[in-house]
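Fold it.
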Amino acid sequence: MFLVKRDNFNKNMIIKGLCAAILFSSFIYLSYFNIENKIINSVLGLTSIYLILTIPKKSLFYTGFFIGIFWCWWLALSFEYYDLNYLMPLVILGVGLVYAIIFYFIGIIEDSIYIRAVLFFGFTFLAPFGFNWVKPELLFIDSYFGITKLDFALILLSMILLNKFKYLFWIPLVLSFYLLPSGKVLAPKLKISMPQLNVNQHIKWEKNYKYELISENINFINKAIEEKYDLIILPETAFPIILNKNENLLNLLKEKSKQIDIITGSLYKKDGLYHNSTYHFSKEKVNVAHKVVLVPFGEAVPLPEKIRNLINDMFYEGAKDYESAKEATTFNIKGIDFRNAICYEATTDEIFKNLGDTKYMIATSNNAWFTPSTQPILQKLLMKYYAKKYNVIVYSSANASENSIIYP
């Protein structure tokens, strides 16, 4: 009898944790199916926060575990391209366990909703191993509430009031509603072409396809010139080569830039070091921006040098990490400033530093590593979050997922 009761208790703990995780993650999957309803997202988001603040401590372990998987399971897909398929289940399990431990710590003091709320608020500042895509404020990106730290604090306060005082819970929510930003940014007076690329990651770096992909990019540029665009934006590593070492192609793009400004991604090599870079061609000149924020475990291993070298030797055939730039680059295109961001960068605060009067960002991505999955949707939601936070318009050009213009 005791064993039966214990089994039922454990099942209830898991079910409560799973329900909280489903509600906490639902907005991502609703957006995947183009369902972005403010009422639905507001209710589901508030309910998930209330559960996280009130369910048993043991349930929170499972909440974190399932949240880690629901939000980040796609991270494992990239291992296919390193012939490390056998690691995929371990990566998914590992991500789940990291967030399971974090959420268990949030509920470390069982009987205090106040301390749990404070610890949960502290989680909004946490980025395990430099990875910041599990962001609680993001739940309310398409809701009636704001997405700032203050808004999230008000939402937590509201759920505390709901638990303790019932009828007063709506007051912080009203404050959050009225704190919604009202500033607008006008689109730049440029005719911008963002051709949709869908290059499979299996062939992207194959030598047999290199010239075909380069030729396709040149055709996109020629078409944009014919249609009298001011600017064409091609995605991250659209040219799958070390572009600064290809003099003929550089000269061709400089020649094309007499008629149109060109933004494109490619690699850059100097002194034996590699950069993931964006090239801006304009009036026969080229300006290169190197990536500032590298993808944790994708472009750089965020661990001490000896461990980093060991991991690179074991799993990446001794390949070195990419080099990062010290500061972000702003391109001036036809007299208008655009901050450059490459993939993961566009979802970090660091790339928005020292924006000044810059109101536009060009974000290039290669999402072929992770498609088909929810990764492009989560990336877009995060870019929408940062567009609102910094009041900028983001021109997102991606390979293997939909291009978009994201307004604050």
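The mean pLDDT is 92.
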